Amino acid sequence: MHKMKKILLSISIAIFTIAFVNTAQAVEWKGWNIHVPGYPNTVGMDKFAEILKERTNGRITLKMFHSGVLGSQPDAIEQVRVGGLQIGNFNMGPMGPIIPEANVLSLPFIFKDTPHMFRVMNGAAGEQINAGMAKKGLIGLAWYDSGARSFYTTKKPVTEPKDVQGMKIRVMNNDLYVGMIAALGGNGTPMAFSEVFTSLKQGVVDGAENNWPSYESTRHFENAKYYSTTQHLMIPECVCINADVYSKLSDEDKKIVKEAALESAELQQELWAKRSKASRDKVTAAGVQVTEIKDKAPFMKAMEPVHAAFLEKNPSLKSLVELIKNTD
Ligand code: GTR
After folding, report:
1. Superfamily of domain 149-234+293-325
2. Ligand 1 neighbourhood includes 91 CB (under 6 angstroms)
3. Parts of the chain belonging to CATH 3.40.190.170
4. Does the beta carbon of 172 sit less than 6 angstroms from any atom of ligand 1?
5. pLDDT of residue 28
6. Is the domain 27-100+112-145+236-277 a CATH 3.40.50.150 member?
7. What is the 3-state secondary structure (H, E, C) of the chain?
8. 268 in contact with ligand 1, CB cutoff 6 A
């Protein structure tokens, strides 16, 4: 064969092989996120996808589906568990019904503040919670900030626990929250996030509870103008991956995936602090009446029975609750 032809042939074989090997090995994961573009979690998850693609040279890509277009949070958690989806950014609240250890994070006032929450999640208690998740097919890669959840209502502000009496309050999908609202004499109504705007507007519920960024990004503030800083729940969020998918990765890829998630969390936490302030400013400018709850003690006291009832039902989780409370 002519020398030139030979060279050309080996070049095309090489190109073909590279192309073939790349397509054969390349995987595309699908990821779920409930939040809209620009939200700290959305930006964080996009960053995660970007790092993943870059550091694996495109062997692993993550296609993110934002704004909850792939369905409700409880359904998406199930999908990531069974492998219909591979990745999700989940609030640990709706994890509780499946993962008992996660429920301790939904106990009112369990954390002293956000730094305490992160110390807990990155310490021994976080390890136990991760182990509980792993048993149910989910690996937690990193923790996102979700601030503190406070009440917002349509007709009158909540200034003390008894104001919630007789009110119908939307809660996330977890019986613990129904108990929490019942402890205040209200009626907790579990409902998908996407339905809250209309339910507030039509008076199906009298209020809901969330952090500043979600209250603002969903425009719930347009229908529920009274926001009271009870800060009764502080629930972290995870970047979670399907356990089978993760366990089949090479050690090198596991490291890339984990680091990408951690770096995305760093960005998310930075953006979270800024967005919380910006959201508060935005809704206040739009006419929201903020009731500052300076003394949280009456709400803590009113919600105490939630802890007792939980521990009675889940005696084996007592040590985890203690571990959290005793984490400096
Ligand atoms: C948000 C959280 C979402 C979702 C939502 C809700 O703060 O980031 O994952 O749980 O609250 O209230 O359903």
Report:
1. Bacterial extracellular solute-binding protein, family 7 (3.40.190.170)
2. yes
3. 27-100+112-145+236-277, 149-234+293-325
4. yes
5. 98
6. no
7. CCHHHHHHHHHHHHHHHHHHHHHHHCEEEEEECCCCCCCHHHHHHHHHHHHHHHHCCCCEEEEEECCCCCCCHHHHHHHHHHCCCCEEEEECCCCCCCCHHHHHHHCCCCCCCHHHHHHHHCCHHHHHHHHHHHHCCEEEEEEECCCCEEEEECCCCCCCHHHHCCCEEEECCCHHHHHHHHHCCCEEEECCHHHHHHHHHCCCCCEEEECHHHHHHCCHHHCCCEEEEEEEECCCEEEEEEHHHHHCCCHHHHHHHHHHHHHHHHHHHHHHHHHHHHHHHHHHHCCCEEECCCCCHHHHHHHHHHHHHHHHHCHHHHHHHHHHHCCC
8. no
The mean pLDDT of 303-317, rounded to a whole number, is: 97
CA of 95 to the centre of ligand 1 (A): 12
Span 280-295, pLDDT tens digits: 999 999 999 999 999 9
**Model-level pTM greater than 0.90?**
yes
Looking at the predicted structure, is the pLDDT value of residue 23 above 90? no
